[in-house]
């Protein structure tokens, strides 16, 4: 009879093997990847979407609070745009005040799995988000804030939500709290969840069952797999790496991150949004923006969309100044793939710092380039033999307007093992292990991990 730890490892390995089988399958019940593209094009043509920037005065249900100037919803729910006063000694630190999205609710990003002909499939949704640069992208089965799934929006019920809530009959394959963008959110987290059902579920016309292999193929296309899908895909189980080589032990990796969290100063407090207008920001009838045009704007939009729980609404969105860049340097060490991770401090991070890509920035915001930026840019511009992955992905379209990052994986096998303080070579299997917990890897790193898996 197996002892309890051995039995648990056996179950984990079995689950991981099922995901591996799905990753190898590029055809499924929806047909080929080309068939999936045709279905997606059909769903895009079947719906009508319009997103128009409007003056703040035309927002319905939103307004600026008289006492603080915060941009809030009349219900007190959803989210608010407030001021955040920050003081830090991290790189390029100092003191400043900025607008920030304050959304203390924990949302749900849920992926429903079912086996067809011995292969796990995942129920994906062609979903419109107001901030998407191309309107429609592939999202998880359920992608909802607490305000939405408790009905504050007064819209129709969220499909398939019952498979993720209390009393569900599904089997949990992955479940954990993960962070969102620490530069734009204050301590925002979502529940990332994968559950398996054995029920016969006929998908709604905006939903489709896809294999992991098909999703990996689609990750190679710009602005198709949305951010919420990518973060859930990053946490799917992999085979336990018992005894696998790593340059640094997992304890050493965590100790280095803990050292940054303990040593770096990050003092922050919510302040009235009006305080930001005394620190380099200004508000007009149509936007809140930085005086020199950098970082981001806050705008208001009017949204009309068929196929959503609510057919029309208005809301604020945060609009980045330009496309960002997120890249891992990738190196084989003793035959094991490692990535160069950085302990990155962000103003809104839940736990001061998380492991982040080697490079993660808007290059225009830096007078002195951050470490490795030039190396990544040179590879992308000319040394294409080093480029393992190079795709533009959108960020969360429910809060951000046309937010994109260029995601890249750059081969660095000739790169030295010794790296600057704050950086560390981390084995890919260690990152997968850490993803079983929350607040260790930032959302950009999780996207790149999903992309790295798609290359296997």
Notes on the structure:
- With 456 residues, this protein is of the alpha+beta class.
- It has 2 domains: 4-49 and 105-234, EvaA sugar 2,3-dehydratase subunit (Nucleoside Triphosphate Pyrophosphohydrolase); 250-266 and 321-454, Nucleoside Triphosphate Pyrophosphohydrolase (Alpha-Beta Complex).
- 21% of the residues lie in helices and 35% in strands.
- It has 9 helices and 24 strands.
- It has helices spanning 4-23, 33-46, 146-149, 212-218, 227-234, 250-263, 373-381, 428-434, 443-454, and strands at residues 49-54, 62-64, 71-73, 80-88, 94-102, 107-116, 119-128, 136-139, 142-144, 171-179, 189-196, 207-211, 266-271, 281-283, 287-290, 296-305, 312-320, 324-333, 336-345, 353-356, 359-361, 387-394, 404-411, 423-427.
- The strands form 5 sheets. Strands 6, 7, 8, 9, 10, 11 and 12 form a 7-stranded mixed beta sheet that branches. Strands 18, 19, 20, 21, 22, 23 and 24 form a 7-stranded mixed beta sheet that branches. Strands 1, 14, 15, 16 and 17 form a 5-stranded antiparallel beta sheet that branches.
């Amino acid at each position: 009879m197996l002892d309890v730890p051995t039995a648990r490892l056996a179950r984990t390995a079995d689950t991981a093997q099922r995901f591996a089988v799905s990753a190898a399958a590029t055809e499924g019940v929806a047909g080929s990847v080309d068939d999936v593209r045709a279905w997606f094009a059909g769903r895009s043509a079947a719906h009508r979407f319009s997103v128009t920037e409007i003056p703040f005065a035309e927002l319905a249900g939103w307004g600026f609070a008289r006492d603080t100037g915060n941009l809030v919803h009349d219900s007190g729910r959803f989210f608010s745009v407030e001021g955040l006063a920050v003081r830090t000694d991290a790189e390029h630190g100092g003191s400043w005040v900025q607008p920030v999205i304050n959304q203390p609710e924990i949302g749900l990003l849920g992926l429903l799995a079912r086996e067809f002909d011995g292969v796990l499939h995942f129920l994906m949704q062609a979903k419109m988000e107001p901030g998407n640069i191309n309107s429609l992208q592939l999202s998880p089965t359920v992608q909802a804030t607490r305000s939405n799934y408790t009905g504050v929006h007064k819209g129709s019920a969220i499909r398939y939500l019952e498979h993720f809530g209390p009393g569900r009959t599904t089997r949990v394959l992955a479940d954990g709290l993960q962070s969102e963008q620490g530069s734009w959110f204050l301590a925002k987290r979502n529940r990332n969840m994968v559950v398996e059902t054995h029920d016969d579920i006929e998908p709604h016309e905006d939903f489709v069952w896809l294999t992991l292999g098909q999703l990996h193929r689609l990750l190679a296309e710009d602005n198709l797999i949305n951010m919420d899908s990518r973060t859930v895909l990053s946490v799917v189980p992999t085979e336990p790496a018992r005894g696998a080589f790593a340059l640094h032990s997992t304890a050493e990796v965590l100790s280095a991150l803990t050292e940054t969290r303990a040593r770096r100063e990050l003092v922050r407090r919510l302040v009235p949004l009006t305080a930001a207008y005394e620190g380099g920001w200004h508000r007009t009838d149509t936007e809140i923006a930085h005086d020199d045009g950098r970082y981001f704007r806050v705008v208001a939009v009017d949204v009309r969309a068929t196929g959503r729980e609510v057919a029309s609404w208005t809301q604020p969105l945060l609009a980045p100044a330009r496309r960002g860049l997120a890249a891992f340097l990738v190196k084989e060490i003793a035959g094991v793939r490692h990535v160069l991770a950085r302990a990155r401090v962000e103003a809104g991070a839940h736990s001061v710092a998380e492991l982040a890509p080697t490079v993660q920035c808007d290059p225009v915001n830096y007078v002195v380039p951050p470490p490795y930026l030039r190396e990544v840019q040179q590879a992308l511009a000319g040394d294409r033999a080093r480029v393992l992955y190079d795709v533009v992905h959108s960020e969360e379209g429910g809060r951000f307007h046309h937010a994109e990052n260029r995601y890249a994986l750059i081969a660095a096998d000739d790169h030295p093992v010794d790296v600057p303080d704050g950086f560390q070579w981390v084995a890919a299997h260690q990152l997968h292990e850490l993803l079983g917990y929350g607040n260790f890897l930032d959302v950009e790193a999780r996207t790149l991990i999903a992309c790295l898996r798609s290359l296997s």
